[in-house]
Write a structure and sequence with these properties.
The chain is an alpha+beta fold and 720 residues long. Helix content is 40%, strand content 21%.
């Protein structure tokens, strides 16, 4: 082989390694170099040309070809009521520029009462490319684009980032169409919706928007069907029926206003059975000649997601969320708060009215906390962030704040200071909470805070579905999860027959109060350990100093409270406590900021299993070599993960089974944000860790192991 050919082949191979499942580079007689399609489980994509080569100073067209798996779809420029448009980020030679996508007309995809716009099957997204006059014949222009597809089914969505490339030769002469896609791209460019001299108006009438369009290709056209696709989401109700009519010079369409309807121009695509055109409707009176000659039918289109399927998915997610919330009460994360809940029930056992009030307030605290957490998660996901359940604990600042909160709760339980004037009365419940309903509400909030690192059985599937449902349904799923967490406490608090069986308040409750401080101290220490894993020992030193200052401030607050009970004015103690608190908060912020410049502590090898870092390439490499692969997607803040690793994944018996099966063990650490792990979780319908996958050679899909592992479960899976 000649050296030059060898080096060229080596370069192309290296380029292909940066994509998913790259195919060999194909060279055509024209000199056009086609990088092969990139594939995932849900989509195949490649960059394909319309012409075999380009001329200096010319404009050519390339297209992003998508081949979408059955049951999945991607989205148009306006995805509709949910989803996200395909985006392109280009890397081009100097002087070469790319226009926006020439979007083909989308299909309408209905889910319950919602409507999305997108594509299924095979579709081409054409993009005009402008070649500078300075391009020299004989050179090759390499076009590269980073594409982000949101590929969805009626149950879940998976972001699929792919890098696509195409090398176009430069020649002087006009180029023929490239095979096999050139003619199809040319046809799509010619038929793509574009402005066509159509005048349009939008008029608010009786709670509706009447869109009238006349002129251009609409004049005198025998149009029978019409539909309007808005460019901006929220301007019209996508799912509402669009009655239409025609006149001698155009058509009219009646639209239902959306949540963001305003008296501003309305842009979009007016699609008919005779063609589709881009229009911008200015606010004003209806145009003459757009009505009076008959009613138009809605434009024919297939829907890919039947409403009944959406209803079943939603109802299934609600049921799984309720079960997941109930099981969450048994997860290790919630144990510290469980003891507090039991003690507060005992305190109110012989006061039914107070028990009912506390039960309802605790439930409200749980539901509000889940609502806030879910709203933040959904908002970040809508903004394009790759996050999942427990995302807040990937932030060192949040972990630092929670550690200090747990410390304060423990100090309160130990009697260092008190919250609320009624805390000294045994009958009012001397727990780490405000008196009355406010205290029960706070306990509910605390329960959600400590439950956040856990995903329980049933809960994972519910959250996976919630994050792809429209936001009202998603919030309903999260609220059902919160109801499941609060339900046992609420049921007991509303059952007088059960309450009378609990012991009466007494001195034992003061002792229980002190005992319950230690689980909270343990939670604070655990969070400090997680913080160390995220930011290193230097940041830990700053946070420990902040914790010391906060403890000192709490002690001073306790002295001040005691002085006020003696009718004294503890001015100095109050000032010092305030200063110490402010210093502690500031130092905690500095500690969290220090983690941005520090590498996370390396994951230690514990037990007999030798782990390698997880990656999709590592899985493919091992399975290609004929080895099974056990994947552990975990995080240091996930208590369930740690228990599973100690109980099931670190035993000699499991190590022996792994050796006998010649299995590889890969660990994906989600302690700090890692978008590749987030996408892997989403690909399997999960929104959080733990997730255990067993890949077998020759099988495309892995086996998903239970979230609560035992030695027997792992060994049986390896030996099957």
């Amino acid at each position: 082989m000649r050296p030059l050919a060898f080096l060229a082949g080596l370069l192309l191979c290296l380029l292909s390694l940066s994509t998913v499942q790259a195919q060999p580079v194909q060279s055509q007689p024209s000199g056009l170099v086609a990088f092969g399609p990139q594939r995932t489980e849900r989509i195949e994509a490649e960059l394909v040309p319309m012409s075999q080569w380009v001329a200096p100073g010319s404009t050519t067209v390339v297209a992003v070809r998508q081949k979408i798996a059955p049951g999945w779809h991607t989205y148009w420029r306006n995805p509709g009521d949910s989803g996200g448009a395909t985006s392109l980020v280009w890397t081009l030679p100097e002087g070469v520029t790319a226009d926006p996508i020439l979007w083909p007309l989308p299909s309408r995809q209905r889910l319950m009462s919602l409507m999305n716009y997108g594509y299924s099957g095979e579709v081409l997204l054409p993009v005009p490319i402008h070649v500078p006059a300075s391009a020299r014949p004989g050179e090759v222009l390499t076009l590269t684009t980073d594409v982000l597809f949101l590929v969805c089914s009626d149950q879940m969505c998976v972001p699929e980032p792919l890098t696509l490339s195409l090398a176009l030769p430069v020649r002087e002469s006009a180029a023929p169409l490239a095979k096999p896609w050139g003619a199809e791209i040319e046809r799509m460019v010619e038929t793509a919706p574009r402005p066509a001299g159509i005048e349009a108006r939008v008029t608010a009438q009786a709670g509706k928007l009447v869109l009238t369009a006349t002129g251009g290709p609409l004049s005198g056209a025998d149009i029978g069907q019409v539909y309007f696709y808005p460019f901006d989401g929220g301007r019209v109700d996508h799912a509402a029926v669009q009655p239409g009519s025609r006149g001698p010079h155009g058509v009219s369409v009646t639209l239902t206003p959306g949540r963001e309807a305003a008296s501003s121009p309305l842009s979009g695509v007016l699609a008919t059975d005779k063609g589709a055109w881009e229009i911008t409707a200015q606010p004003g009176a209806p145009l003459a000649g757009a009505q009076g000659q008959g009613v138009l039918a809605p434009l024919d289109d297939a829907t890919s997601a039947p409403a009944r399927t959406g209803v079943l998915v939603f109802l299934q997610a609600l049921g799984l969320a309720l079960l997941g919330g109930l099981v969450l009460n048994l997860m290790p994360c919630v144990f510290p708060v469980l003891a507090m809940k039991a003690a507060s029930l005992s305190a109110a056992a012989h006061d039914p009215a107070r028990a009912r009030r506390d039960g309802v307030a605790f439930t409200a605290g749980v539901l509000v906390s889940f609502l806030v957490l879910a709203g933040a998660l959904l908002a970040l996901r809508a903004a394009g962030q790759a996050i999942g359940w427990g995302f807040q604990l990937q932030s060192p600042g949040v972990v630092a704040a929670l550690a200090l909160v747990m410390l304060l709760v423990g100090l309160n339980l130990s009697g260092v200071f008190h919250v609320g004037a009624g805390m000294q009365n045994a009958g009012s419940g001397p727990l780490s909470r405000l008196p009355g309903a406010a205290g029960a509400f706070f306990t509910g909030v605390l329960a959600v805070v400590v439950a956040a690192p856990c995903t329980a059985p049933f809960m994972a599937a519910a959250l996976g579905a919630a994050l792809v449902l429209p936001w009202p349904m998603a919030l309903a799923v999260f609220l059902m999860l919160g109801l499941g967490l609060a339900l046992p406490y609420l049921a007991i608090s509303l059952s007088p027959g059960l309450l009378v069986r609990l012991p009466r308040p007494g001195v034992w409750m003061e002792r229980l109060k002190g005992l319950l401080a230690f689980p909270m101290y343990g939670a604070a220490l655990w969070l400090l350990w997680v913080f160390t894993r995220q930011g290193g020992v230097d940041a830990l030193g700053l946070l420990l100093t902040a914790a010391l200052l906060l403890a000192f401030a709490a002690w001073l607050w306790g002295l001040a409270q005691a002085a006020r009970q003696r009718e004294e004015r503890p001015v100095l103690a109050t000032i010092c406590a305030t200063v110490a608190s402010v210093m502690a908060i500031g130092l905690a912020g500095v500690a969290a900021g220090a983690t941005r410049d520090a590498d996370a502590a390396p994951r230690g090898e514990s037990g007999p299993l030798a782990a390698r870092p997880w990656s999709a390439a590592a899985v493919s490499e091992a399975t290609a070599a004929g080895r099974p692969v056990l994947v552990n997607l975990t995080a240091d803040w996930c208590v369930t993960c740690k228990i599973n690793e100690r109980a099931a994944l670190s035993s000699p018996r499991v190590a022996k089974a792994m050796t006998q099966a010649n299995a590889a063990y890969l660990v994906g650490d989600w302690t700090r944000r890692d978008d590749s792990i987030t996408r892997e979780l989403q690909a399997h319908g999960r929104s959080g860790v733990p997730l255990y996958l067993l890949y077998r050679p020759g099988q495309a899909e892995p086996e998903i192991l239970p979230q609560l592992l035992t030695e027997g479960v792992v060994i049986d899976a390896l030996t099957d």
